[in-house]
């Protein structure tokens, strides 16, 4: 039996925009209200998917959400035709309007937490969509995300889908952005590390004061219970509140792991030595801990370049490489660190740089763009094949983007009723290309 890790990247939606909605995300706020290019953003994402597929990796694609979310506006009391709802919300409640236009679903690291069959009690791959309660604009995603995941992984013999956790800050869950799995081989039982920012039911424990801690310990434990994980192969680690205050809104902004490697910043965690010892003990064989000291790379530089918001992947020849944004290459400090890393005695042998600036300006690097699913060949055979990148799908999606996406989009354009029509037409066609069925609310009316 073969086994591997598949990355499912989020396809950038036709209303990709910079609204600066994410308090605590420095990049998102600094580019608020800039003019975006949905077509360029989608094509950048597709190019990265195709490049990884050409490296020999299995690469999937996850469909975007429908935005603007007319249904959310109607729930909030805006009435009339779709065009009237848009105009009224835009004029009467611009902040709410911006939120329901969010492009954030492109960051599929927040779509769900995934536990492979080798780790779960029932031997199936488990999916729990993240509730994303900390941000209103992201809390609109879980139901559609769940439907899309069920359309992609639609075989109850191999896949188990859970409802997202209760919509409350006590169970704030940000998905795979705060979850890392370690294993010797992808198909073998591993250790799952959940990272949280605070305790919901114990205010005496450390927590950031300025920026929000989006993930709770209680949410991590709930997901582990749902997935049937063993305490012997689960580790809970708290983020350092001091780095959350510096813009590290998810763990994947300050650490990344793959197989037997954890690549992290010196300031990433609380009780680092104790937790790494626990991880080593539960893993049971050689872990490589690669700590980046503050003296080499500051937290500010790590956040600015997203040097940890990178993909750490293993090629078919067993070589481990980093997929990094070009911002890392443009930083003398980070580039020089990577050059030193490649000649040191670690499993990481290469860094490849990718231009994902349309995503970076909105606050997400390569790691934000993908949901990781470790699976064996039988499980892969059970995945909806129209969601796996190959030459035909790549070409079809590029033609689709050229046909439906605008070159430029300002935040004011989002109130254009014609854009809503264009977007729905595009998404309806996409569900046919990817054989998803009626996953969007407008298709289910």
Task: Provide an overview of this structure.
- There is one protein chain.
- The mean pLDDT is 95.
- This protein starts with a strand and ends with a helix.
- With 445 residues, the protein is α/β, with parallel strands linked by helices.
- It is globular and about 60 Å long.
- Helix content is 34%, strand content 17%.
- Strands 2-1-15 form a three-stranded mixed β-sheet, with helices on both faces. A three-stranded mixed β-sheet has the order 3-4-5.
User: How is the biggest beta sheet arranged?
Assistant: 3 strands, mixed
- The fraction of residues in strands falls at 15-25%
How does the overall form come out from the CA principal axes? globular
CA-CA gap between termini: 43 Å
Give the overall pLDDT as a whole number.
95
Based on DSSP secondary structure assignment, what is the total number of beta strands?
15
Unreliable spans: none
Radius of gyration: 21 Å
CATH fold-level name: L-arginine/glycine Amidinotransferase, Chain A
Q: What is the helix fraction of residues, given as a range? A: 25-40%
Top CATH class: Alpha Beta
Task: Please name the fourth-level CATH homologous superfamily.
Answer: Succinylarginine dihydrolase
Q: By helix and strand content, what is the structural category? A: alpha/beta
Number of helices: 18
Major sheet strand order: 2-1-15
The structural domain count equals 1
CATH architecture: 5-stranded Propeller
């Amino acid at each position: 039996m073969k086994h591997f890790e598949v990355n499912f990247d989020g396809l950038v939606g036709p209303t990709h925009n910079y609204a600066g909605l994410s308090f605590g995300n420095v990049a998102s706020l600094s580019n608020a209200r800039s003019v975006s290019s949905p077509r360029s953003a989608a094509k950048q994402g597709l190019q990265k998917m195709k490049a990884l597929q050409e490296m020999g990796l299995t690469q999937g694609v996850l469909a975007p959400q429908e935005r603007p979310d007319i249904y959310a506006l109607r729930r909030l009391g805006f009435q009339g035709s779709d065009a009237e709802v848009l105009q009224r919300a835009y004029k009467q409640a611009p902040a709410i309007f911006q939120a329901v236009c969010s492009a954030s679903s492109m960051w599929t690291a927040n779509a769900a937490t995934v536990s492979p069959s080798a780790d779960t009690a029932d031997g199936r791959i488990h999916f729990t969509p993240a509730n994303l309660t900390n941000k209103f604009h992201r809390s609109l995603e879980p139901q559609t995300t769940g439907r899309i995941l069920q359309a992609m992984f639609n075989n109850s013999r191999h896949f188990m889908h859970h409802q997202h956790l209760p919509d409350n800050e006590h169970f704030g869950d940000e998905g795979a952005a705060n979850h890392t799995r370690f294993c010797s081989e992808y198909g073998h039982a591993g250790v799952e590390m959940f990272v949280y920012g605070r305790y919901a039911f114990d205010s005496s424990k450390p927590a950031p004061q300025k920026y929000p801690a989006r993930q709770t310990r209680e949410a991590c434990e709930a997901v582990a219970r749902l997935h049937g994980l063993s305490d012997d192969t689960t580790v809970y680690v708290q983020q350092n509140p001091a780095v959350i205050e510096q813009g590290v809104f998810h763990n994947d902004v300050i650490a990344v792991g793959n197989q037997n490697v954890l690549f992290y910043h010196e300031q990433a965690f609380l009780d680092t030595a104790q937790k790494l010892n626990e991880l080593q003990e539960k893993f049971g064989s050689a872990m490589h801990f690669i700590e980046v000291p503050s003296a080499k790379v500051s937290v500010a530089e790590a956040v600015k370049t997203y040097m940890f918001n990178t993909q750490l992947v293993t090629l078919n020849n067993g070589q481990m490489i980093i997929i990094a944004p070009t911002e890392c290459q443009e930083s003398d400090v980070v580039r020089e660190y990577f050059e030193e890393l490649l000649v040191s005695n670690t499993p990481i042998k290469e860094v490849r740089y990718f231009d994902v600036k349309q995503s970076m300006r909105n606050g997400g690097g390569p790691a934000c763009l993908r949901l990781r699913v470790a699976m064996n060949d039988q499980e892969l055979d059970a995945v909806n094949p129209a969601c796996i990148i190959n030459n035909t799908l790549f070409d079809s999606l590029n033609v689709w983007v050229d046909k439906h996406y605008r070159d430029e989009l300002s935040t004011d354009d989002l109130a254009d009723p014609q854009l809503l029509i264009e977007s729905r037409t595009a998404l309806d066609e996409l569900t046919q290309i990817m054989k998803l069925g009626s996953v969007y609310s407008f298709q289910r009316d």
